[in-house]
């Protein structure tokens, strides 16, 4: 039997609730999936002390990146990434950037492709 929230990690199948330690909501304020995030000063240097999925998220952040794009790149369920990133912002590991109000066509196409990849 297969579930839509399963993720393949190597040869192992990981359910979305395992990524978030069973949480379906963030312990802190939740941010929309279009929120752009980047590591705060020192987060990249201390990434080796973070839990596995948080390390993977930080590893994807070479420039400000939308939560939805992180989920697509890591091939993780969007909801799980939204919970983790929201908590990482609350913990001071990531900072949020102003959400784009007037998006150009290229940005909208990148978001569309990221969502389609989910």
How many separate domains?
1
Residue-averaged pLDDT, rounded? 77
Strand order, main sheet: write it out. 4-3-5
Give the DSSP E fraction (strand runs of 2 or more residues).
Answer: 15-25%
Shape: globular
Order of helices and strands: EEHEHEHHEH
SS-based class: alpha+beta
Return residue spans where pLDDT drops below 50 for at least 5 consecutive residues.
1-9
Gyration radius over CA: 14 Å
Q: What's the main sheet like?
A: 3 strands, antiparallel
Helix content class? 25-40%
In total, the number of strands is 5
> What is the first-to-last residue Cα distance?
20 Å
- Please give the count of helices: 5
Structure characterization notes:
- The structure is a single chain.
- The chain is of the alpha+beta class and 118 residues long.
- It has one domain (6-117).
- Helices cover 39% and strands 15% of the residues.
- The chain contains 5 helices and 5 strands; from the N terminus they run E-E-H-E-H-E-H-H-E-H.
- The chain has helices at 16-19, 52-59, 67-74, 78-90, 105-117; strands at residues 6-9, 12-15, 36-39, 65-66, 94-97.
- It has a 3-stranded antiparallel sheet with strand order 4-3-5.
- A hairpin with a 2-residue loop joins strand 1 and strand 2.
- The longest helix has 13 residues, at 78-90.
